Amino acid sequence: MVMQRIQAEVENHPIVLFMKGTPQFPMCGFSSRTVKVLKDAGVADLRTVNVLEEPEVRANLPRYSNWPTFPQLFINGELIGGCDIAVELHESGELARMVAEAQKA
Fold it and tell me: Does 47 count as an annotated binding residue?
């Protein structure tokens, strides 16, 4: 059941961040930095899932994505990665392009 929920989140929202906490109150530095670079890249409508409030999602997302850590960023249904990758993509300008394309769709 939880795997279908994760898949629905990823498929029904162009940009989804599975994070610790919320954008207003991030509960780890990596989640906070990822939210910041997404906002800087122009994300207008960021869908987030707080894995601290959803232990089943937290336990199963690494199996779904084959990515062990949080946060996890998905754009257009595809795993982009975690904080370090999001920051690198932002610094190269690539994240803004990906965000713009996802928000157009």
Answer: no
Q: What is the CATH number of the domain that holds 35?
A: 3.40.30.10
pLDDT digits (tens, 9 = 90+) for 11-24: 999 999 999 999 99
Gap between the Cα atoms of 35 and 30, Å rounded: 9
**Average pLDDT, integer, range 77-99:** 97
Choose among 61, 48, 53, 51: nearest CA to 15. Answer: 48
70 is in an annotated binding site: yes
Specify the number of domains making up the chain: 1
On whether 45 is known to bind a ligand per the annotation, the reply is no
25 assigned to a ligand binding site: no
Output the pLDDT for position 45.
Answer: 87
Residue 88 lies in domain: 2-104
Q: Whose CA is closest to 6, among 84, 53, 74? A: 74
What does the alpha-carbon distance between residue 62 and residue 28 come to, in Å, rounded to a whole number?
Answer: 18
Q: The whole model's pTM is what?
A: 0.96
39 annotated ligand-binding residue? no
